Amino acid sequence: MRLVLTALAAAAAIASPALAGEGRFEGRGGIVWSGGNSEAIAGVAAGYDWDMGDAAFVGVELSGDKVLEDNTRVSLGVGARAGAKLGEAGKLYVASSYQTKPCKLCEDSVSLGAGYQHSFGGNLYGKVEYRRFFVGNGVKDFNAATAGLGVKF
Known about the structure:
Elements: H1 2-14, E1 21-34, E2 37-51, E3 56-67, E4 75-86, E5 90-99, E6 109-119, E7 124-134, E8 142-152
Antiparallel strand pairs: 1-2, 1-8, 2-3, 3-4, 4-5, 5-6, 6-7, 7-8
């Protein structure tokens, strides 16, 4: 949690009206797994990235994701990402977030991961991402791999 809040504060402090940026909204889906178990996951996210010169960016994100299994609920997240711009169309990044409980008897978690976002021209983009969720309190950590499609503005 402290890592995420520190990253969000740093992004807000660094960002200024002089720095160009872009908002984004996406839908995503994938798989979440731990131990020998796996389930489908679906969600949405909205974020904003600030350009840090020609080669780098930082951003913030709010998300809602749901494991597509009975007795689960939408897990809300707040996070940050930072990375390198690869040409005109690509972004390679690391990301971290705080996530609320995905079910009544579950625990909240902090994630750390990496991803790649690619512009398809215009405002449309696609992305792939992997995250490891660190749970604590004796609960097994879990993993998620997702693919998303979004619009930037």
